[in-house]
Design brief:
461 residues, mainly alpha, Fumarase C, Chain B, domain 1, Fumarase C, Chain A, domain 2, Ribonucleotide Reductase Protein R1, domain 1, two-stranded antiparallel sheet, 61% helix, 5% strand, elongated
Length: 461
């Protein structure tokens, strides 16, 4: 296995040790960041006169050729090398000769890998920002088309008050909006360039770290060389962002799973996002939602793994930190696939509006409005609360909804009831009169949707 070190050693590394130590099998996905960072480093070395112009130009030309050949498939990254850094440097030296050996001047693998990982995560923040924005577009479209779609809202999984499907989807819009905001914040906070920190104590070469940072679109270089190579806070923060996204997706998936059940029948999942049973021909299973719910633990595991790995590491770099990549790459792939598949499921799902409204009507979701009606008639709220409780009990005993009661039945419980009670407990009335900002009433909902549309047009990474 080709390595960038060995002069200190008198015999070769045991093969099992070399294999255990190697990271090429997973850090190969950092090839673009590694080459881009090396090109910037070479430009800076040439600018500072640390390398001759000819050597710098030769290195840059060679690195661009390696990048091109990897991407067009003519150069394959093999496991014959310890890591992606040694692969790139070995291929470069083979192609351009001794000038390739000068690329690593003023640089350590410690600051090199710190750079690669920051650049990679920065790129992933941008990808997740776009993916979340698309999911938000899907939810907003559902909201815009369902301002008047009445359904029950729940507490303790019991029907509580009537809301609209737009309002329900709006709650998840807010969750994923916060997730997108966190991703944007993480991208801003990590945007400092560690290249030039060396192994831990900088270098005696007159590097221009500000120039390198500018070339790589960082806001500034990192301010402490030891922290530069040992910091993985940004990665833990990013994994926490992913964990929160998955938590929100999992909650949403649980809703879809319940709504898809025979007991609810609120939704019909598109055939393209469902599967059947090998033995029960009637089954149509919400597998995407269930898998998203299940894979949430996998992403949580990546976050806990990194927190555990980093909790006892002294300054500066330790090999433990190589464990940052596999779990992070798996969490990224898992979360990205979950978002895109969930988005696809939601964009094709059918909402059974008639079933939703009937469920709200049969669940005493207008009981609070009936109590508010009595308050409007001068009954103290606490007394009104007790009266409506008795009314609901009467309805349960007689298998009726509040709307089904005759006026005589209302008056038998409380003489304050008048004929206008029917309008007061009508579900549309119950929803439409909730006009405070953030409530499900159509006026309030339209205002929020207008703000959400403006937000999606303006807020970008």
């Amino acid at each position: 296995m080709a390595q960038l070190w060995g002069g200190r050693f008198t015999k070769s590394t045991d093969k099992a040790v070399a294999d255990f130590n190697a990271s090429i099998c997973f850090d190969r996905r950092l090839y673009k960041e590694d080459i881009s960072g090396s090109i910037a480093h070479a430009k800076m070395l040439g600018k500072q006169g640390i390398l001759s112009k000819d050597d710098a130009d030769s290195i840059i030309l060679g690195l661009n050729g390696i990048l091109r050949d990897i991407e067009n498939g003519t150069l394959v990254i093999t496991d014959d090398y310890e890591d992606i850094h040694s692969f790139v440097e070995a291929v470069l030296t083979k192609r351009i000769g001794d000038a390739g050996k000068k690329l690593h001047t003023g640089r350590s693998r410690n600051d090199q890998v710190a750079l690669d990982m920051r650049m990679y995560i920065r790129g992933e923040c941008a990808e997740f920002e776009k993916t979340l924005a698309h999911l938000l577009e899907t939810l907003l479209s559902i909201m815009e088309n369902n301002i008047d779609t009445i359904m029950p809202g729940f507490t303790h999984l019991q029907k509580a008050q009537p809301v609209t499907l737009a309002h329900y989807m709006g709650a998840y819009f807010e969750m994923f909006r916060r997730d997108r905001s966190r991703m944007l914040d993480t991208a801003k906070r990590l945007n400092e360039c560690p290249l030039g920190a060396g192994a831990l104590a900088g270098t005696t070469y007159p590097l221009d770290r500000f120039y390198t940072a500018e070339l790589l679109d960082f806001d500034r270089p990192t301010r402490n060389s030891m922290d530069s190579v040992s910091d993985r806070d940004y990665l833990i923060e990013f994994l926490d962002d992913l964990a929160l996204i998955m938590m929100h997706l999992s909650r949403f998936s649980e809703e879809i799973i319940l709504w898809n059940s025979n007991e609810y029948r609120f939704v019909e999942i598109d055939d393209g996002f469902s599967t059947g049973s090998s033995i029960m021909p009637q089954k149509k299973n919400p597998d995407i939602a269930e898998l998203v719910r299940g894979k949430t633990g996998r992403v949580y595991g990546a976050l806990m793994s990194m927190l555990t790995t980093m909790k006892g590491i002294p300054l500066a770099y330790d090999k433990d930190m190589q464990e940052d990549k596999e779990v992070s790459f798996d969490a990224i792939d898992t979360c990205y696939n979950c978002i895109t598949l969930f988005d696809g499921m939601m964009s094709t799902i059918t909402f059974r509006k008639d079933v939703m409204e009937r469920s709200a009507m049969n669940g005493f979701t207008n009981a609070t409005d009936a109590a508010d009606y009595l308050v409007g008639k001068g009954v103290p709220f606490r007394d009104a609360h007790g009266i409506i409780g008795k009314l609901v009990l009467y309805c349960i005993d007689n298998n009726k909804a509040i709307d089904d009661l005759s006026l005589d039945e209302f008056k038998a419980v409380c003489p304050a009831f008048e004929a206008d009670i029917y309008e007061a407990v009508n579900l549309k009335t119950c929803v439409n009169k909730r006009l405070t900002y953030g409530a499900p009433g159509p006026g309030a909902m339209k205002k929020v949707i207008e703000e959400d549309r403006k937000y999606l047009l303006e807020e970008k990474l």
